Amino acid sequence: MKDISDSDLRTNIPLASARPDGRCTPVRVGNVEVGGNAVVVIAGPCAVENDIQVLDIARAVKAAGAAMLRGGAFKPLTFPYRNERMYELGEVGLQYLRAAGDATGLPIVTEVVDVRLVDMVGRYADVVQVGARNMQNVPLLEEVGRVGKPVLLKRHFGASLRDWLGAAEYILHRGNERVILCERGIVAPHTHAPTSRFIVDIQAIPAVREYSHLPVLVDPSHSTFRRRYVAPIARAAIAAGADGLILDVHPDPERAAVDPLQALDYAAFGELMRELRGISSVMGRKL
Amino acid sequence: MKDISDSDLRTNIPLASARPDGRCTPVRVGNVEVGGNAVVVIAGPCAVENDIQVLDIARAVKAAGAAMLRGGAFKPLTFPYRNERMYELGEVGLQYLRAAGDATGLPIVTEVVDVRLVDMVGRYADVVQVGARNMQNVPLLEEVGRVGKPVLLKRHFGASLRDWLGAAEYILHRGNERVILCERGIVAPHTHAPTSRFIVDIQAIPAVREYSHLPVLVDPSHSTFRRRYVAPIARAAIAAGADGLILDVHPDPERAAVDPLQALDYAAFGELMRELRGISSVMGRKL
Amino acid sequence: MKDISDSDLRTNIPLASARPDGRCTPVRVGNVEVGGNAVVVIAGPCAVENDIQVLDIARAVKAAGAAMLRGGAFKPLTFPYRNERMYELGEVGLQYLRAAGDATGLPIVTEVVDVRLVDMVGRYADVVQVGARNMQNVPLLEEVGRVGKPVLLKRHFGASLRDWLGAAEYILHRGNERVILCERGIVAPHTHAPTSRFIVDIQAIPAVREYSHLPVLVDPSHSTFRRRYVAPIARAAIAAGADGLILDVHPDPERAAVDPLQALDYAAFGELMRELRGISSVMGRKL
Amino acid sequence: MKDISDSDLRTNIPLASARPDGRCTPVRVGNVEVGGNAVVVIAGPCAVENDIQVLDIARAVKAAGAAMLRGGAFKPLTFPYRNERMYELGEVGLQYLRAAGDATGLPIVTEVVDVRLVDMVGRYADVVQVGARNMQNVPLLEEVGRVGKPVLLKRHFGASLRDWLGAAEYILHRGNERVILCERGIVAPHTHAPTSRFIVDIQAIPAVREYSHLPVLVDPSHSTFRRRYVAPIARAAIAAGADGLILDVHPDPERAAVDPLQALDYAAFGELMRELRGISSVMGRKL
Questions:
Q1: Fewer CB within 10 A of the end CB, N or C, for chain B?
Q2: Separation between Cα atoms, residue A235 and residue A216, nearest integer Å
Q3: Separation in Å, CA of B133 to nearest CA in chain C
Q4: Which member of C79, C114, C157 has the closest CB to residue B115?
């Protein structure tokens, strides 16, 4: 029943495995610290739709207390024909996101899906995200290991903790010490409600703490795919000890270009932030 | 992807399904209300070992704020030879548990595993528990449907929400309106740490809220099997909106007769209760 | 990753675990041997609907080569209101099944779901079936351990091999040496087609061979829930080394009282039996 | 419960979805046809170790009836430090594999893991394999969609059939009509034996037949990770209707550079081929 053996810890994940003192090594992004005392909330649109939208969202999430801005310019979709692909703005999207980050002072987080675009994405992003579907794309892990920017590494929905820390080790092994883990749901025996394909593995949070010194976030939006589950899972994640969250926020979620079922509107995000502040305080942390 | 269809809700689970106003129907146990404003913590030993032990634990958990006392006198074990079977005290165990409940004023919760013993267990217990392994033992569901005591119905680790609410419907259908649901982990693709076989399905909490008016608890002890995961999962459950918890507590967990790896000692339980009180307050609830 | 440890084998499942010579211990039912050289096919209706139906089916499956007759008189259903409950004929159903067995010389297999009815069912049945949902109903396992008839023990869809062999051990431990295992699908991350909830665990067949001396069958009907998957899974099971199958057969499947989507009609059953005979021959076995 | 909707079939997977006549479209590789009447066995070493080894294996598997030769020159491993990486021979490995293919007349199948190497791998390979971990690496799918060689697309162990056919659609959409699907096991709730992490989803074979016109193979070696399970699963796959297999074969499996627990030696492979020939014949197919 043991997923990670002592031999794995010593031999296979020496850089990612827990330190003797059991503490987390915070990752610094600008003047934000992920994995330190403060809980970090990263928020923004699933997809960058245009320059006005992303700036508006950046201002709103900053006002509510978010520490970083997220937004997708490249997305790995299940099918090749989706209209959403219109909203793969690519480098233009990165420019809009960068401008919104600069205007608000929020560091920006965005996904890279192509090994040939790592340098380009790295020029815009403050944190480069490796998505769940690319968690074991080894050339991509090696390239983001060289890029000089912190990496947010999402867990594949079929991956064990061992697989996940092994992927982190590839990045660390290339000399990039700034790896942030992000749980975003695992495939589960039975879905229990419409459109919810994944189960957030809350136990992964204490498990990462036990086996690794890397900070760990949770993505309640892409895991649950449903707005009404986002706040409960977000609160649960912080209560279980996660170092933060990455959340989809949109001014008019039902008109969001991508994944319209999961984004929070500004009011819901504000209300959630108030609850998270309370829970963080119970945990002896700030937000 | 839809586990519960509208047709299921109308046709198959008319009594368990959500009310038009979306509210929970609290279940009254003595002067405790499960599913009302107050979060309810049920605590006690996995197995009733002797009269002194269970009384000592009852006093300790009451002092820390528990609202009910749990304790096993009958247990369905994986193998027939375990030493633990020495601690299946049966009716004597129920007498000890009853005495401890009476001495402290805590209602008692205990499991029934045999359809022929429902009346006997019902004479001692304030809440009769149906364990995960018997979730679809139909004759047992029908008997506890007649017993006149509230029923705590655990979810089988392989059961969908549809299966679980169907089981609740059997009890309601026999005229027993007082059913309390309890999530205790589901089988998961990969275990991520030694001895943890189940993943607590935190999304089940908002999902039960959406589809049913029954209160829902979480058991962080039997789901995780590991002490260090109990507090994080307990906090996450309350943060996600659960109506309470059922927890293993033992004065000397490593010497517990059954499941020594999962019980909290008094100090850890007291510390957890303080955290839960804070989280409940954030949620606008009492504890 | 080891589900069954050497310590389990020695301490917890001494009676069910593999013999030093690695061979299967056949279970005798009348003049049929399960787990011997011959592959054994058990066939019949999901539910006994009436005396004429079951006799007609018995004759048809015997003519096609079935060695035993199956039929349900008691069924654990997901919800309490289903019309199918009209077809829980109970003891009358057992009488019809017995008569059909006597008329054709086929031993009969039927499920018992209530510990209070084990003796009654045992008076009619040649093989008493414990269904998946009752796999860890300990009092039921203990009663069928005393009943003097062979027991067909289905695997719960959430159970590991360790849980399953532990359940078999309860029966063996009560003195009943004739236990036949039956794989019927496990909960899986993603269903891949309408109405198919379970994945048949074909690897369980060589795994049972490795860890246990008990014969093992597969139920392709209740696992897949879909007619078009039944023949492929049936052939796969025999090719993987299973000792036989238990199959739903009905003269007019779409009008079957229970589970109309999964039964084979006579022609499809006859064609499948021809294929199974060929595969058995490749495996050095008879059918 | 429906994984693939009619809307998906029409809108999202028009090229991969089943034809009106329900038939498979064979994929031609040299003078081998995958998905035609003949069952196709692809065999060879997990990793190409040297020129002599791969030629020796090529001769042995051809003599036993294999139609193509497999061998890895690039492998995505879980951890970055494994000794196995010594056996990532890269382009030299491809040259050895090509030479062995040319000497025996067997088309060669090999994996590409880096989008920047697709053209290079495509110059050597007759079939380009996309491994499970890269099943949703979109840039890689798009590149192999342009490469002019047939593609063997393995299913990710966490992927639904919908995800898998969506990945195939990316390749087809780029103009490459020759896509061969390959099932290689899915994450499962409980492993039932040491080192077996995945459950082969045998039902995926009839499910692919129902929803797609693409041929489908099974990999019993990388799914089960254990030699003793390979032959049972291989036989089951063919009995369930798979168009062929891809198998690890090594002259001295315990000394194989990579995955020593799963390869068959020549004698075991020969014996399995005899059994598969018999089962293919029962299915009305040749081998």
A1: N
A2: 15
A3: 6
A4: C114
Q: What is the pLDDT of residues C38-76, one digit of tens each?
A: 999 999 999 999 999 999 999 999 999 999 999 999 988
Q: Do C235 and D233 touch (CB under 8 A)?
A: no
* Two structure tokens written together for C146: 């005393």
DSSP string, A96-127: HHHHHHHHHT--EEEE---GGGHHHHHHH-SE
Q: Interface pTM (ipTM) of the complex?
A: 0.96
Distance of CA D62 to the CA centre of its chain: 17
Contact C81 B114 (CB under 8 A): no
Classify residue C145 by burial, with Cβ atoms within 10 Å: 0-12, 13-18, 19+: buried
Give B-chain residues touching C140 at CB under 8 angstroms. Answer: 137
Residue of D nearest to B3 (CA): D1
Dist CA B149 CA B176 (whole Å): 8
> Following CA atoms D70, D76, D80, D83 in sequence, which dihedral angle do they give, to the nearest 10 degrees?
-10
What is the chain C residue with the closest CA to A162? C1
Instruction: Tell me the pLDDT tens digit for each residue of B95-146.
Output: 999 999 999 999 999 999 999 999 999 999 999 999 999 999 999 999 999 9
| Nearest-by-CA chain A residue for D132 | A136
**Measured between alpha carbons, how far is D260 from D251 in angstroms, rounded to an integer?**
11
Q: Round to whole Å and give the CA distance between D72 and C18.
A: 37
Residue A47 corresponds to which tokens in the numbers above? 């997809």
The reply to whether residue A187 touches residue C187, judged by beta carbons under 8 angstroms, is no
Backbone angles phi, psi at B274, to 5 degrees: -60, -45
CA atoms within 13 A on the CB side of C260: 9
Distances (CA, A) of B64 to A283, B155, B236: 19, 27, 19
The alpha carbon of residue B191 is apart from the nearest alpha carbon of chain D, in Å, by 9
User: Which of C3, C199, C237 comes nearest D191 by C-beta?
Assistant: C3
Mutation target vs B (from D157, D160, D190; most B CBs, 10 A cutoff): D190
Q: Could you give all domains of chain D from N- to C-terminal order, each with its CATH number? A: 36-282 (3.20.20.70)
Which of B1, B2, B187 lies nearest to residue D189, judging by beta carbons? B187
**Amino acid residing at D265:** D
pTM: 0.96
Nearest of B43, B39, B35 to residue B18 by alpha carbon? B35
For B6-18, the pLDDT digits (tens) are: 888 888 999 999 9
E strand or H helix that includes residue B230: helix B227-239
CB pairs under 8 A between A and D: 94
**List of chain C residues whose C-beta atoms are within 8 Å of the C-beta of residue B169:** 79-81
Residue D124, SS3 per DSSP: helix
d(CA A231, CA A235): 6
Burial of A164 (0-12, 13-18, 19+ CB in 10 A): buried
- Helix H or strand E encompassing B130: strand B127-130
Q: Which residue of C has its CA nearest to D204?
A: C192
Give the orientation angle of helix B51-64 with respect to helix B266-282, to 10 degrees. Answer: 30
CA B236 to CA C211: how far, in whole Å?
39
CB A181 within 8 A of CB A164: yes
Interface test with C, best of D183, D203, D287 (most C CBs within 10 A): D203
Give the distance from residue D110's alpha carbon to the nearest chain C alpha carbon, in angstroms: 27
User: Chain A: residue nearest C197 by CA?
Assistant: A190
For residue C131, give every residue at least 6 positions away whose Cβ sits within 8 Å of its Cβ, in sequence order, or none: C76, C111, C113, C154
Residue C284, classified by CB atoms within 10 Å of its CB into exposed (0-12), middle (13-18) or buried (19+), is exposed
Q: How far C198 CA sits from the closest chain A CA (Å)?
A: 9
Strands A40-44 and D108-111: unpaired
Q: Is B80 in Cβ contact with C170 (below 8 Å)? A: yes
